[in-house]
Write a structure and sequence with these properties.
mainly alpha, 72% helix, 161 residues
């Protein structure tokens, strides 16, 4: 991949990569950092990247950086955020979108990523497989399991009422 091809790839897919990362972590600053790290990794290896596979390489890199970031953050909790009173609530939810976001957060990371790519971003099974490094059949299994979990979670009346 030449410098011009790299720049073209960044221009063409910058918004899509940012939206994908932002939907998964919902923090604009962290999303921008993750996307920047993905661009940096792609730049370091741009001579070895096939220009026809630039989109796939960029999304795959962003996906892996996102996973690494998520795993690092799971193990660290700020003291301000560790207030136990915040974790207990007696409110009932009626907003389906909020319940859906809660359900998505309960999914394993791999299932969450593939369901977001498929249902929110509209990627094909093959594209998701290329980005995540999973086989197409494994992508389908993860999406199926995620949808079953979401259906069960949202279907509980005590969650919605």
């Amino acid at each position: 991949m030449t410098v011009e091809e790299y720049n073209q790839c960044v221009r063409q897919f910058a918004d899509n990569v940012y939206r994908f990362v932002l939907k998964n972590i919902r923090d604009e600053d962290k999303a921008a950092d993750i996307v920047q790290d993905a661009y940096e990794k792609m730049w370091r290896h741009h001579k070895n990247v096939d220009p026809a596979k630039g989109k796939s390489y960029l999304f795959s890199t962003a996906y892996h950086v996102l996973i690494d970031h998520t795993r690092r953050e799971k193990h660290s909790v700020r003291m301000e955020e560790a207030d136990l009173k915040e974790h207990v609530h007696n409110q009932q939810y009626t907003d389906l979108q909020e319940v859906l976001h809660q359900a998505l957060e309960k999914l394993p990371e791999d299932q969450k990523m593939v369901i977001m790519m498929r249902d929110y971003e509209g990627y094909s099974y093959q594209e998701i497989g290329e980005i995540t490094g999973l086989s197409e059949s494994q992508v389908k299994v993860y999406i199926y399991r995620a949808r079953v979990f979401l259906r069960k979670y949202i279907g509980k009346m005590e969650v919605l009422v």
